Amino acid sequence: MNSILIANDGTQYQIKNQLGSGSFGTVYQVTDLSMNKHYACKIISKALLQKYNAEKMIRQEIYIQSTINHRNIVKVVNSFEDNYYIYIISEFCSRGTLKQPKIPYQEKEIFNITHSLMSALDCLHSNSIVHRDLKLENIFINEEGTYKLGDFGWATYIDKIEPAICGTTEYMPPEVVLKENHDFKVDSWSLGVLLYILVHTNYPFRAQSQSELIQLITTKEINVNKGIDEDLQILILALLTKDPQQRPTIQQLFMSKWIKKQMKLYNIFNKYENQQLKNKTLSKNLAIKIIDVNGSVKKCLADSQKSSLTQSTNTQISSSNNPCSPFQSKTNIDHIFSFKEDDNIISVPQPKFG
Description:
10 helices, transferase, ATP binding, alpha+beta, ATP-binding, Protein kinase domain-containing protein, 12 strands, two-stranded antiparallel ribbon, Transferase(Phosphotransferase), domain 1, Phosphorylase Kinase, domain 1
């Protein structure tokens, strides 16, 4: 395909090969002709957006990914539209996405993935954003091997959340599948499911039907591999706590034993360590039950619940000293999407949908 897209700022993108497809359109690799730099371009059908009343969701996805800057979050660098399609230009992650492992990941790589996602989610939550669709397929890997959270189709601001089923069922917490009120802790649960997969190579809840899966999510107790680090067992079980009030926040995870131990091992600065109590409403201790090989039950107190961390929905991030800060993308939010045509350039591709 030799089609060329022209963005509202005049940037020309040549369409290369197809990378994948989704519910509303197709993703292509494109090249910025002025910089000879590769990007991913999601081409979304307006007709499908209108059919499923999803245009507002897509525009919010663009806004969030255009205004948040973090090394572990896929950047949207440009966006524009014509009469038929919306075009989203984002950084190109040449190594694809995480796949369901055939053998368990090594502990070092499990930490690398977990810490990357925790950092991304901490950034989002500090800006009052909930992702709501954390899963293997939405974890992208760039050329340098950096893990990046992408696909913000279900992301929203905390004050706009309404009880609804959203995301991917296998990763949904009980409060979502039951259409109850939910908050930042949906991302904690989904991170727990992803961690479970990395350790066990399969999902914590497996069923033959959607109704059976929902029943398992809301009622089934989780068993974890007793051969892994006990502190990692505690972390997974804490994240998969069915009661969201007892489930740790992402900030609290930075104070869990396993995370603190790994960060110290790899000499990573932990900005939350020794942070003083600011809000005591979340100071209740959480006892995690772990069944050992003999069937006896012992209680382990997760460090994440000993900590004095809280989740603020109104935290303001300083762009001068924090990697999670707004950046200047090519997207004009106030005049979002304009499309230029040139008689000498094929500016509208003909992607196949459905």
